[in-house]
């Protein structure tokens, strides 16, 4: 992809999201969703290989179905209350929440790290923001989806050898926490999304090394030991180990879910299962030595971005217990 085209697509991707977030009616929100989808698909097609084309189609089909359902729900909004159910289902499909999650690992398995990072972070912002407006009438549906996402995401990540596929199942597990927090308040949901994005970014920067596709290639990559330690720290934070930022984000949600016992148990169970493959990968990194001392061009950036979310641990604790 040529740089001018890449810049244009990036600009359109961000502006379409901002258009929907600032919209005052469902029509402009739907237009923003469509522009967002059309801007992201060319990013997947970095080359004309069969795998990239297949991934773009796997992304296009569920997103198109979600956009169609959202448009139909918008048209029926003034005629029936069932439109809220349809609209919520459309947004959950776009997010890749269980039981509509099967397209997410399939797409993540063969796309490049840059669009993969965008898919797991920025592309969640718009649907989650729209869901926040539907939470009051759709709490039961959203919480049921959160329970299913916690179980499906955690069990699906077991025995995965592709890093991006593993992170896609991890994303589904973290999505369950975001969906659960939508019934609380907007600040909690967006704070969790921001911390998740901050923990995920350094890992994808490390994966921009073409050699890193499996757990073993992470150990044999050209990433220096300090950067590998940074990756391990991010994985432990995503696993929710105290006192890292990921743990504080989960604790922030749990302290506000006192009245939802079933949901709380499902979230904790999903995190406990996820902890297994997080620790397995982390211990492999910590007990290995890099096979080469060739520096990775993103090493310093990885280490810097790793430390940033962890510095938020103390402020989160102060806010949580204030």
Task: Give me some keywords for this one.
mainly alpha; respiratory chain; 322 residues; single chain
Please characterize this protein's 3D structure:
Helix content is 74%, strand content 0%. By secondary structure, it is mostly helical. It has one domain. Helix 1 runs parallel beside helix 7, helix 10 runs antiparallel to helix 12 and helix 10 runs antiparallel to helix 13. The chain is globular. The mean pLDDT is 83. It is an enzyme of class 7 (translocase). InterPro entries: Complex_I_Subunit_2, NADH_UbQ_OxRdtase_chain2, ND/Mrp_TM. The chain crosses the membrane at residues 69-93, 190-209, 229-249, 261-281, 301-321. Its EC number is 7.1.1.2. It catalyses: a ubiquinone + NADH + 5 H(+)(in) = a ubiquinol + NAD(+) + 4 H(+)(out).
Order of helices and strands: HHHHHHHHHHHHHHHH
What Rg do the Cα atoms give?
19 Å
Number of strands: 0
Q: What is the tally of helical segments?
A: 16
Give the distance, in angstroms, between the N- and C-terminal Cα atoms. 50 Å
Helical residues, percent: over 70%
Shape: globular
* Residue fraction in strands: under 5%
What is the total number of structural domains? 1
Mean pLDDT level: 83
Q: Tell me about the biggest sheet?
A: none
Can you tell me the residue ranges where pLDDT is under 50 for at least 5 consecutive residues?
A: none
Which structural class do the helices and strands define?
Answer: mainly alpha
Q: Please, what is the oligomeric state?
A: single chain
